[in-house]
Amino acid sequence: MTQNFRERWRQMSQRERTLVLAGGAVLGLSLLFILIVDPLLDTLDRLDRQEIRKQKDLAELAVLGQAYLAKRDRLTSTESRMPGADSHFSLLAFMEEAATTAHVRERITSMQPQVQSLAQGYQETAVDLRLDGIQLPDLLALLVAIDQAPYDLQVRHLQIRPAAGSLA
After folding, report:
1. What is the rounded distance in angstroms from the CA atom of residue 112 to the CA atom of residue 130?
2. Contact indicator for 107, 131 with CB cutoff of 8 Å
3. Secondary structure, 3-state, 120-156
4. With the CA atoms of 54, 55, 57 and 62 taken in that order, what torsion angle do they form, in degrees rounded to the nearest 10?
5. Are 101 and 141 in contact (CB under 8 A)?
6. Does an H or E element contain 108, and which?
7. Is the pTM of the predicted complex or chain greater than 0.70?
8. What pLDDT, on a 0 to 100 scale, did the predictor assign at position 163?
9. In a 3-state reduction of DSSP, which class is residue 94?
10. pLDDT tens for residues 102-148?
């Protein structure tokens, strides 16, 4: 076969040889591009797209990390203002003490505890406190005493009505 090829090569004119060599070079370069260069370029494009997507994911992860740290700090701060498991804190006793401090204990008409379980083993204790015939300065003194509690206490609902028979 190579002998056949050499024979034909010798019979070709210089112009034909140049044309065959140019065609072979074009064919070789085409095969090189199709088999090696084009797949490499496709891989580079795909990697560039992946890099951009991963950078976006990384930025999003950094934002989520910051949000997580902020929430963890907030949880730690909130937990530090909660009574410990070994604490003998009683919300009812505290409310009675706060009412005594604000000089409104005798105005308490009812005080009912309400316990509600929350997620992750936390338990929220609420008190429904009803006062009758209280003056606004005394109410403010009670709210200040609640606000200055050693633990995290909140007034969730406050409803004030004028006394019956008063001009409002």
Report:
1. 9
2. yes
3. HHCEEEEEEEEECCCCHHHHHHHHHHHHCCCCCCCCC
4. 140
5. yes
6. strand 108-117
7. no
8. 66
9. helix
10. 888 888 888 888 877 677 767 778 888 888 888 889 889 999 998 88
